[in-house]
Design goal:
About 5% of the residues have low confidence. The protein has one domain. The protein starts with a helix and ends with a helix. By secondary structure, it is mostly helical. 30% of the residues are buried. 72% of the residues lie in helices and 0% in strands.
């Protein structure tokens, strides 16, 4: 237990936007930066897909800054061409948040029975306990996912607003989806609607990651280009962030302002298992 508490204390002090040189996780199998050329294309694609700092906003920014990449393929892929012309990554990003807000607001407006109505059916209480128990188990994997993806060998440098927003979205949206799912299942009286709302939220959470996976399945050379030219190791990452802060007072202020939200996010992830554990007993009783 002392080791675990020490792990939480160290993790809380770290910056989500930066890697840590003394706790690196190396999914690509690279032991030295000079051996970068030995990394396979599949590992580079996996690194780009799994990096939380390279999300929908950063992907669209990459398209905006490198439109010539669409002309380098003998086969024209619609996903690549229209990712820029129709802003497909931005559509995915905005759709996730709009549908999340719509589902939550609709259910909140239609619910009038209070915090502990105790009017639910036995089947509904069983579903509520099951969902809470599953999320209690998943909450530990959610934390491990954060730690693992924070300490990759190479990652996208956090030197732009799009990277910062993508990072917060990747971890924050997952917590919001799980929290909203618990609330929606609690307030729904019908068992089929409870299950459908739960599945709808899970669908929302995976939209951006599914888009990245499918996109780079068709265009692995794009992922390789991103990995080789944009992703950086810790030392270079740190130097680029310092250079960006020194070169732009606005960016320096943005970095300072995001410290509190990211610390709150980490605290929420730490406390999320406790909330799920409480819900395992509170929700079946009060539903």
């Amino acid at each position: 237990m002392r080791y675990f508490l020490n792990h939480l204390r160290k993790s809380f002090k770290e910056d989500i936007l930066m890697t840590s040189p003394n706790r690196q996780v190396d999914p690509e199998g690279v032991k030295d930066l000079e051996e970068q050329c030995k990394v396979s294309k599949e590992d580079k694609v996996s690194a780009v897909v799994n990096d939380p700092k390279f999300g929908m906003l950063t992907l669209f920014h990459y398209h905006w800054m490198h439109p010539e990449r669409a002309k380098e393929y003998s086969i024209t892929y619609c996903t690549h061409v229209f990712s820029l012309l129709s802003a497909l990554p931005l559509l995915v990003f905005t759709s996730q948040w709009m549908m999340w807000f719509a589902l939550v607001l609709y259910q909140m407006k239609s619910y009038t029975q209070g915090n502990c109505p105790m009017t639910g059916s036995t089947e509904g209480k069983m579903i509520m306990f099951g969902v809470s128990a599953v999320y209690f188990v998943r909450s530990f994997f959610l934390w491990d996912n954060l730690i693992t993806r924070m300490h990759m060998k190479r990652s996208m440098p956090a030197i732009s607003l799009t990277v910062i927003l993508d990072t917060f979205h990747e971890f924050g949206f997952n917590v919001l989806v799980y929290g909203a799912n618990l609330m929606l299942v609690f307030i729904q009286p019908s068992v089929p609607e409870m299950i459908m709302n739960s599945l709808a939220m899970e669908f929302l959470m995976q939209l951006d990651n599914e888009f990245k996976s499918m996109y780079f399945d068709y265009l692995p050379d794009i992922a390789e280009d991103i990995y080789d030219n944009l992703f950086q190791p810790y030392e270079k990452h740190q130097a680029l962030v310092e250079e960006a802060c020194n070169g732009s007072r606005i960016f320096k202020w943005i970095r300072c302002l995001t410290v509190v939200p990211f610390k709150l996010l980490m605290m929420t992830l730490m406390l999320f298992p406790v909330m799920c554990f409480v819900f395992m007993f509170y929700s079946p009783i009060c539903k």
